[in-house]
């Protein structure tokens, strides 16, 4: 037979066993204490009773007279027996000062000497003791019989002893024992029911798992939560944060006391708060915070088909989004170069054909005009913008705009000093602002023009992009910088509506400002702090 290992029991079973054992100990101790208390109470009740009887007998005038008469036994024995029977005591002994008995329940003991202590009673006091006499162990009281008519030294004329056998006292306690046991049994039943209810609740809350299983589950799960590289957030059905691992705290910038607080009180952006609080499942949603671009996935947290809340995972896509923006710019430049190569081929064919037809002067003029237009833009951008990456970006955007039938103008006094901002941030800001402007004017029926300006105004480097599009609707300026806002149809891979949000995030991180004006059209002005001087 396998040995019982309590450590393998479930927490509920261990709790039940411990509570039952504790209840048994408490009830046993209570019963023992009650029994001892009942014995002490029986002793006190016996002493009180025999004291009252003895004092009553000693104060009876007939007894005072009889003990001083010629035949005390004849006068006192019937009286003493009647008192003994009526009071429920075991003996009422009346004796002289020397201890010679005048009365006794056993007539054979009359005339004999009282067995016990009497010195305190002879001095006018009271003797209370447990002593073994002719009737066995007993609780007794000896009091003096006083004749107040005599001188003080001779007033004690006799003694009265009244007692109850110890076995009789114990018998009275044993009579109470069934009631004590019944009370203990009732307490045990109630304790057992309470313990069973507690164990049932503990079993339901711990799912019947043992102490070792719960400890290992906590240790392993805690280790996993701290080790995973994705942010993990669990919210309950009431929208309160129940769990957030280290990565989630870092990505969301949560305070130390975030657990058990409503998500709405954590200072997150409105779209992110809504995503974490509502009941809708979400897949690969992009959310922009003040410092990061996050990919959010959300689903229900279920336990045995019961919904407990929601599980949300977060991935940091900040660097990836910036790189994606740069890739889009490079892709746009590539497409522009491809289209320019196509246009250049067409122009070369035109020039060759003009030469073959003998129109050499017109061929030369045509080639010179095209070269002049392209060279003016290139010279203007290269001469004013000292950052190569921004120069390449502007040339690429100009080619893209030309292909889309949009006029991209670079202000003649454009100037962007090197070191005003990190190159990646400059590409993010300028690229997204120009892309947004190109998209805004692409569907306009009238003039389609985008103007790029860059200059230094005091301690700030300023970028300004304006367009001739319809501008932003009334009340939409603040919405334009949150993730997902767009006046156009959804773009690829969920990127529509994130460009301006990335610009706003980047400007805020660099300590700058972003302003919007219009209509007519829309003008976006970015001011970045720069300490390079004029």
TrEMBL record:
<keyword id="KW-0597">Phosphoprotein</keyword>
<feature type="domain" description="PAS">
    <location>
        <begin position="217"/>
        <end position="259"/>
    </location>
</feature>
<feature type="transmembrane region" description="Helical">
    <location>
        <begin position="180"/>
        <end position="199"/>
    </location>
</feature>
<feature type="domain" description="Histidine kinase">
    <location>
        <begin position="429"/>
        <end position="532"/>
    </location>
</feature>
<keyword id="KW-0547">Nucleotide-binding</keyword>
<keyword id="KW-0902">Two-component regulatory system</keyword>
<keyword id="KW-0418">Kinase</keyword>
<dbReference type="GO" id="GO:0000155">
    <property type="term" value="F:phosphorelay sensor kinase activity"/>
</dbReference>
<dbReference type="InterPro" id="IPR005467">
    <property type="entry name" value="His_kinase_dom"/>
</dbReference>
<dbReference type="InterPro" id="IPR035965">
    <property type="entry name" value="PAS-like_dom_sf"/>
</dbReference>
<keyword id="KW-1133">Transmembrane helix</keyword>
<keyword id="KW-1003">Cell membrane</keyword>
<dbReference type="InterPro" id="IPR003594">
    <property type="entry name" value="HATPase_dom"/>
</dbReference>
<dbReference type="InterPro" id="IPR036890">
    <property type="entry name" value="HATPase_C_sf"/>
</dbReference>
<keyword id="KW-0808">Transferase</keyword>
<dbReference type="InterPro" id="IPR004358">
    <property type="entry name" value="Sig_transdc_His_kin-like_C"/>
</dbReference>
<dbReference type="Pfam" id="PF13188">
    <property type="entry name" value="PAS_8"/>
</dbReference>
<protein>
    <recommendedName>
        <fullName>histidine kinase</fullName>
        <ecNumber>2.7.13.3</ecNumber>
    </recommendedName>
</protein>
<dbReference type="GO" id="GO:0005524">
    <property type="term" value="F:ATP binding"/>
</dbReference>
<keyword id="KW-0472">Membrane</keyword>
<dbReference type="InterPro" id="IPR029151">
    <property type="entry name" value="Sensor-like_sf"/>
</dbReference>
<dbReference type="InterPro" id="IPR016120">
    <property type="entry name" value="Sig_transdc_His_kin_SpoOB"/>
</dbReference>
<dbReference type="InterPro" id="IPR000014">
    <property type="entry name" value="PAS"/>
</dbReference>
<dbReference type="Pfam" id="PF02518">
    <property type="entry name" value="HATPase_c"/>
</dbReference>
<keyword id="KW-0812">Transmembrane</keyword>
<dbReference type="GO" id="GO:0005886">
    <property type="term" value="C:plasma membrane"/>
</dbReference>
<dbReference type="Pfam" id="PF17203">
    <property type="entry name" value="sCache_3_2"/>
</dbReference>
<dbReference type="InterPro" id="IPR033463">
    <property type="entry name" value="sCache_3"/>
</dbReference>
<feature type="transmembrane region" description="Helical">
    <location>
        <begin position="16"/>
        <end position="36"/>
    </location>
</feature>
<keyword id="KW-0067">ATP-binding</keyword>
